[in-house]
Every structure is written in C-alpha cells, then in structure tokens.
Amino acid sequence: MNEMLKELAAKRFNIDPAALTPLTGGHSALVFGYSHAGQDRVLKLVPPDAGIKRADFEANLDWQAYLAST
Questions:
Q1: Is 20:33 a contact under the CB 8 Å cutoff?
Q2: What is the distance between the alpha carbons of residues 19 and 56, in angstroms, rounded to a whole number?
Q3: Would you state the pLDDT for residue 1?
Q4: CB under 8 Å to 17, separation ≥6 — which residues?
Q5: Is 61 in contact with 44 (CB distance < 8 Å)?
Q6: CB neighbourhood size of 40 (10 A)
Q7: What's the average pLDDT block by block, 10 residues per block, for the chain (70 residues)?
Q8: Distance of CA 7 to the CA centre of its chain
Q9: Residues pairing with 44 in the sheet
Q10: Within 10 Å of residue 54's Cβ, how many Cβ atoms?
Q11: How far is CA 10 from CA 13, 62, 66, 70, in A?
C-alpha cells in the first residue's frame, strides 16, 4: 500500500496522517499506532487481496476487541 492509501484511511477515521507511527508485525497488513483522546490506538490496513479467510479476519477482530476491553 502506498502513502495515498494511508492518508485516505486516516481521513476516513479522522486521524492526522502525521500522527500515524508504523508498527511491526503486520505480516500482509500495514499497522500504525496513534493516540486519540489520551488513549493509544491501532489502525490496521489489510489489502483486499491478502488472501485472508473471512473467519480468520473475524477471529482477529474479536481478538482486537478483547484486547481493547482489558
């Protein structure tokens, strides 16, 4: 993914693109950290052709929701 997609995603979620810090471990995704309202957040961009099965993607979302709740 290129810089333009990162900026489009940031705009979609009302994030200043300059506030996005690249994080490691995204495998086929781009993962960025940022802060919002005093809380650390993560923006994960997964390309549509990443080959991830829907069930795996949903399991990942569940895991992220669990982590956010702790």
A1: yes
A2: 29
A3: 52
A4: 6, 7, 10, 11
A5: no
A6: 8
A7: 84 94 83 91 85 88 88
A8: 13
A9: 31
A10: 7
A11: 5, 22, 23, 25
The pairing of beta strand 30-36 with beta strand 39-45: antiparallel
Q: Give the span between the Cα atoms of 10 and 13, in whole angstroms.
A: 5
One-letter identity of residue 33 = G
Amino acid code (one letter) for 4: M
Burial, 27: exposed, middle or buried (Cβ in 10 Å; 0-12, 13-18, 19+)? exposed
| CA distances for 59 relative to 18, 20, 51, angstroms | 30, 25, 15
